[in-house]
Amino acid sequence: MTKTTSILLLFVLLLFISNVKLFAQANDTLSLLKSANYIKSVKSTAGKLEEKLDKKTEKLLKQLQQQESRIIKKLQKTDSAKAKALMTQSEAQYKKLEQNLNKLSKKSNTYLPSLDTLTSSLKFLEQNPELLKLKDNGGQLNGAMDKVQGLQQQFNQAELVNKFIKERKQSLTKQLQGVGFVKELKQINKQVYYYQAQVNEYKEILKDYKKAERKAIELLSRTKLFKDFMQKNSQLASLFRLPGNTPSDPATLNASLAGLQTRTQVNALLQQQLSAPGAMDQFRNNMQDAQSQLNSLKNKLGGQLGNTGGNDIEMPEGFKPNTQRVKRFRDRIDFSTDFQSQRGSSYFPVTSDIGLNAGYKINDKSVIGIGMSYKLGWGENIQKIRITHQGLGVRSFVDWKIKGGFWLTGGYEQNYRNEFNNISALKDLRAWQQSGLIGISKQTNLKSKIFKKTSVKLLWDFLSYQQVPRTQPVLFRVGYGL
Prior knowledge:
Layout lengths: L2 H33 L2 H39 L3 H24 L9 H15 L9 H39 L6 H26 L3 H11 L2 H10 L1 H5 L10 H8 L5 H12 L4 H26 L28 E11 L5 E13 L4 E16 L2 E20 L2 E11 L15 E13 L8 E9 L12 E8 L1
Antiparallel strand pairs: 1-2, 1-8, 2-3, 3-4, 4-5, 5-6, 6-7, 7-8
Helix pairs in contact: 1-7, 2-3, 2-5, 2-6, 3-5, 4-5, 4-8, 5-6
Keywords: Coiled coil
């Protein structure tokens, strides 16, 4: 075999291996899209958020109208003419808003990167149906697309409502200034704040892709075909010419550049204009003004490009919001575990209590919860280790934040402190003992891959003195957030 033939065969082999890898990657993407049910996942996520956002918007407008009605009724007792004028204006403004919401076009979109990615991925799959081998493929895609477009429409409406309520707040404040409706205006400000915070929370939820969506998008994003499609068909591409999104047709390219000055022409014009006395200073001032306007536009655009940090929310004066109020129920649940041990005559522990708790965050400073504990027996000493079931417990607790990482902790527990070999033994209610706990806990920054936070608790059982036999009055527990 000649050297040339060997090189040719090696080249063919490398080309074959490359194609096999590309084919395998494509197959992985297809199988993932099929097994993870990507379309169904997108449809479910968009549908739930669309429904929730629609209800929140409707609820806010209804609350504001009711609040304005109460203000008008109260105002009629002191100034009927002003009350009538306010009622006429209110009815006209809400009617105009309703008309604007009905006329709102789906194309006048509030840009959200995560929503743009979902929309573009569905369009990509719609134009490449061979990537999905599902029954009624077109129907499933259309259903998912409708939900995503419906969600986009709800965000568009939320943007319009935000603009309306901001103008309405300013109008009411101006008209009611000095009339004595401070309490009512504060209530309106709170309602508006929580609505805006809720919209931002939905945007964050949308960014938190489900496992099926995240992996499918990750695999799709690796393919050049999908990257090219995003550069030409995404919502961002319609706003700006993305890198690499240059027309391939010379005629189209020349047409898009028609009328633009060349760099040489611009340099020559600058030199000519700046040669006049004082022209350089004027040029610098103009550049500074242009930079200032550009930064202002950039900040404004940042909010439209999905900046959900909450900087656009107007905080009512003297108002301390409950940030937990706008979160999902599951995001307000904290799971934790704690341990405490009791030793006998030596350093070897006789028993260890292992607790599992679930706490619900009422607000940023208050947590209520329930839990269970299991008492594990270790035996007599290190030479005689014997694992036994030494007890079981159910518990409830309340935590209230004092300052920094310190929390005031209280709770009520029922404990079965006898050894048992089967569940039926636990039915004897007389064998259960009560515990009333109060104490303090400190959360520290000790974290690991498994635990989110670490806490230590020092508790006093004020009901321990009533127990026969008397139980341990002071408890020390180490807890870990899951």
